[in-house]
Task: inverse folding
């Protein structure tokens, strides 16, 4: 796909508007805040369908289907260039891809042991930590305290006694990887043109996760119905939200984007209730509210 094909609204052969131009025009007619919310719902809906697949496939196999789908689609459309890369570029790209693989694998392992809302809330501590670390104001101690209170409320005692310690551990690993993902994404953006850094990382991630996913999934990965569901999970969890977020970021300040993204744990909890029947206790809802409030507060203060 050439740059001219992306910029020219008309197909020279037919004189009709190009499909890409029509899609962009359609997305431009939607408020950017709505695009972000659609992306959040898409990601969490994909996670819900992925969790339903756990009855047939292990989490590592579902992760492989998700990442492989994203890598195929992004690799086909973006086609990252490998010529001219120095060893530092390779190190950043490969590190980015490995982090992406571990992040997704640990999150899906957490998802198989925890309700969606709890898994996403704990994972959100990663980007929250990056936001607080980038700011050295005293009020940030409040957001750290709120997040810590949320974690304590989610710990396996009281109404949360049935929550798995292993699930919490996997979610924390996913959060740490998400923090690394944010930093490596910025580094990749400086070394790779456009979005080719993410496409390169997705391909690396698929290669890294393939041995584990194929080994654990086995012949079940070849079942057409599972492949279709896995394709849907990949589109909902990676391709669609990434495209929506890119369109939104073109038209809104980054701090507003961050504020909207802060509601993701609450959306995950609601989808868990509606799609999976995961009823949370009052204590667990309070924990999610604490983490969402900490994320909102840190994002707003970062802007000021």
Result:
């Amino acid at each position: 796909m050439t740059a001219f094909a992306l910029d020219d609204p008309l197909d020279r052969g037919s004189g009709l508007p190009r499909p890409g131009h029509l899609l962009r025009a359609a997305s431009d007619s939607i408020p950017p805040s709505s695009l972000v919310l659609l992306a959040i719902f898409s990601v969490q809906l994909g996670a819900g369908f992925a969790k339903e697949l756990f009855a047939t496939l292990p989490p590592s196999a579902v992760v492989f289907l998700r990442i492989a789908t994203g890598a195929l689609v992004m690799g086909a459309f973006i086609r990252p260039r490998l010529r001219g890369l120095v060893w530092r570029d390779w190190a950043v790209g490969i590190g980015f891809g490995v982090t992406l693989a571990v992040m997704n694998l640990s999150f899906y392992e957490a998802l198989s042991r925890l309700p969606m809302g709890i898994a996403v809330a704990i994972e959100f501590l990663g980007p929250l930590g990056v936001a607080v670390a980038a700011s050295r104001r005293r009020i940030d101690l409040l957001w750290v305290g709120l997040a810590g209170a949320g974690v304590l409320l989610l710990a396996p005692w009281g109404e949360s006694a049935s929550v798995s310690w292993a699930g919490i551990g996997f979610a924390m690993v996913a959060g740490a990887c998400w923090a690394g993902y944010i930093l490596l994404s910025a580094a990749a953006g400086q070394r790779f043109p456009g979005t080719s850094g993410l496409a390169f990382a997705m391909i690396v991630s698929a290669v890294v996760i393939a041995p584990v996913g194929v080994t654990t999934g086995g012949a079940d990965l070849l079942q057409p119905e599972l492949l279709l569901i896995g394709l849907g999970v990949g589109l909902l969890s990676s391709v669609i939200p990434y495209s929506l977020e890119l369109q939104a970021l073109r038209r809104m300040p980054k701090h507003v984007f961050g504020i909207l993204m802060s509601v993701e744990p609450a959306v995950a909890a609601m989808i868990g209730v509606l799609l999976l029947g995961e009823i949370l206790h009052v204590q667990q809802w309070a924990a999610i509210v604490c983490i969402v409030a900490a994320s909102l507060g840190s994002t707003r203060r970062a802007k000021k």
